[in-house]
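Let's practice the habit of predicting before peeking. Look at the sequence and jot down your guess about where helices and strands might fall. Then scroll down.
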Amino acid sequence: MNLTIALLPTTWTLIADALLIPVFFLIYYTFPGKWFNQNYNAFLAVCVALMVLWSMKAGIRAGMEYHFLGATMLTLMFGWQLAILGAAIEVLALVIMDVIQWQMYAVNVFIMGVIPVVISSIILLMVERIKNNHFIIYFFAGAFANAALTIAASVYIASMIMVAGGAYSYDYITYEYTPYISLMIYPEAFLTGLVIIIMVVNYPQWVRSFDDKKYPYGSKDDSKNNKD
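Done guessing? Here is the structure:
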């Protein structure tokens, strides 16, 4: 999903540059500074790992690549602010490494950061509204299914942006690219679910979205028996 300058009109890239500024201001004003100061090492480690995964990709043509996204994992672990910031840092690193064109920095931050983080956050809010919630629901719906739906929606949105920009025809991209979204869904969902369950069990303080009071491991009866 690495979009190049040849795929979109110059006006679109300038609009993306302008829209990214208020996004950064919103992150700044809502930044979880206290939590970040206590857990910045985990945040930086995940960013480095995802940067490596992003650089490992396969594709057909420009903008039609397949690679891990990790947006849902970032959102669940660090919240939407740090998730977008992490994606922005990773894109910047890839720009420095000459993997991504600097003119397309803002566009790719939206494609690989802002859009999937927003989708993941909406799905997570829906999961949080479920009554009688449970850890299994958090894991399967909030992590596994969330990651699957997020990457599917993100790839489709990126595809439609390329179609709207005139890079490819709708028929071509729906025949050559979008049918293979299913190949990306399971690896993304599996990796996200695996990382989240490991973090919740071993380092729950690194998963901001998880609360053992909201998502208990056992049933309410089990909790009462344990208390007795």
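How did you do? Confidence is low (pLDDT under 50) at residues 219-228.
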